[in-house]
Specification:
With 428 residues, the chain is mainly alpha-helical. 79% of the residues lie in helices and 0% in strands. The chain has helices at 2-17, 22-36, 43-52, 59-72, 75-87, 93-109, 112-117, 119-129, 134-145, 155-164, 168-174, 176-197, 206-232, 238-256, 265-296, 298-310, 313-330, 333-350, 355-369, 377-386, 390-413, 416-426. The protein is globular, with a radius of gyration of 22 Å.
Length: 428
């Protein structure tokens, strides 16, 4: 069966290169395997249904819906104004505010694309109005957007936890320190660039001004507190937190800020269903193909070979980093996760690598991939918002990859950066 699986994977890769939709090519590959291996064809629909019937996966459409509501309810504008009041007085103030706002928004949306397309629109416009060149504004916005899926809640963490059978709560906790380190590293980079370019700063608004902007954004800023506190306090699960966040965002837009137009709800629901459909199709077909991989014993065969090749957990992690950084340049993050998780996680477990640390390394690699050409989806979003050529966007992002790669190296080399907080809070 292993030989058959290799042949089917080769055909599947050819189909992808020829432009076949990823979910369709994975589904066809799964059907081809069961038919050629003389397994009842009804097995594939059963695996598709089992993958969809997942309580943790229910968080995905709810987080997507929450992000869409927040983007339509004026919540992002209040968050950015507060961030600017907090750090705008530093040299390169709007650059720092851009990063700080992404940290706050990360605790709400859990998506790099939602960050770039939501608060990123305001950030780029404000920076352009103040005289920043479009490339710098877009590059900082794209780099800071990668914080969104690392700080909880996080849609990629949900997908990873479901696919790799790892506690989603532990993954959420594990992302807090790396996410804050990403923000700190980017702000250090901004400080150096600001010093060299003599970038502008804003006058400190005073305690009164800071308090005014905080009051305008108070209930929006409570979103991460409610979500994180509720999950860690055992009030609700990460999946239920997505439902709470969605209702809370709708409540803010309708009754607190009153900036949400109910007429926009059908459009938002349609966009959410469309995005969820793409995610669910990928998850279901990847689960079916993953089951075929397991039955063929390809991961069990490949795992010992990889272990024999690298010989140590650190060497394996470095190998995975190199692989995922390259894969992220050419493949959308969710698709790469669903394809590679069944292959790489058994080898990581066999080497004794903490599954939570491996999950963070895995996700952060692929989030960096969202801002690397030629298939960096966040680059496309920010280039469109800033109205610049994709080639210019690709050149502008290069220096801003360095701080993120430093954080990636840190969590790879020192596991407590990802494991200390989950063990402290959850005892595991």
């Amino acid at each position: 069966m292993t030989t058959l699986m290799w042949q089917i994977i080769a055909g599947w890769i050819v189909a992808m290169l020829l432009g076949a939709p990823l979910f369709a090519s994975m589904g066809v590959a799964a059907f081809a395997f069961v038919l050629l291996a003389d397994i009842p064809a009804a097995t594939v629909p059963q695996k598709l249904a089992q993958a969809a019937n997942s309580f943790p996966l229910l968080a995905a459409p709810l987080f997507i819906l929450m992000g869409n509501i927040m983007n339509s309810a004026g919540i992002t504008e209040r968050i950015f104004a507060f961030a600017k009041a907090c750090v705008g007085w530093l040299r390169g103030g709007l650059c720092h505010a851009n990063i700080f706002a992404s940290v706050i928004f990360a605790g709400m949306s859990g998506s790099a694309v939602a960050d770039a397309g939501g608060v990123g629109t305001l950030e780029i416009k404000a920076m352009r109005d103040e005289g920043y060149d479009a490339e710098t504004a877009a590059a900082i916005t794209a780099a800071s957007a990668t914080i969104g899926p690392i700080i909880p809640p996080s849609l990629p963490m949900v997908i990873y936890g479901v696919s790799a059978d790892v506690s989603i709560g532990a993954l959420f906790l594990a992302g807090v320190i790396p996410g804050l380190l990403m923000a700190l590293a980017l702000m250090v980079m901004v400080a150096e660039v600001s010093r060299r370019r003599n970038l502008p700063r804003h006058a400190f608004p005073g305690l009164g001004g800071l308090w005014r902007d905080y009051r305008r954004a108070h209930w929006a800023l409570m979103t991460p507190v409610i979500l994180f506190g509720g999950m860690m306090g055992g009030v609700f699960t990460p999946t239920e937190a997505a439902g709470v966040a969605t209702v809370y965002a709708l409540f803010l837009g309708l009754f607190v800020y009153r900036d949400f137009d109910l007429a926009a709800l059908p459009r938002i629901l349609a966009e959410t269903v469309e995005t969820t459909g793409v995610v669910l199709a990928l998850v279901m077909t990847a689960a079916a193909l993953g089951w075929c991989l397991s039955i063929s014993r390809l991961p069990q065969t490949l795992g010992p070979q990889i272990i024999g090749l690298v010989g140590s957990p650190l060497a394996f992690l470095l190998l995975v980093n190199g692989l995922l950084l390259v894969v992220g340049c050419f493949m959308e993050a969710l698709a790469a996760m669903l394809i590679l998780i069944p292959i790489l996680t058994p080898a990581a477990a066999a080497l004794g690598i903490d599954p939570v640390q491996f999950g963070l390394v895995f996700v952060l690699n692929l989030m960096i991939g969202t801002i690397t050409p030629p298939v960096g989806v966040v680059l496309f979003v920010t280039a469109r918002i800033a109205q610049i050529e994709f080639s210019a966007m690709s050149r502008a992002i290069v220096p801003w990859l360095a701080p993120l790669l430093i954080v990636l190296a840190a969590i790879t080399l020192w596991s407590p950066l990802t494991t200390w907080l989950p063990r402290l809070v959850l005892g595991k």
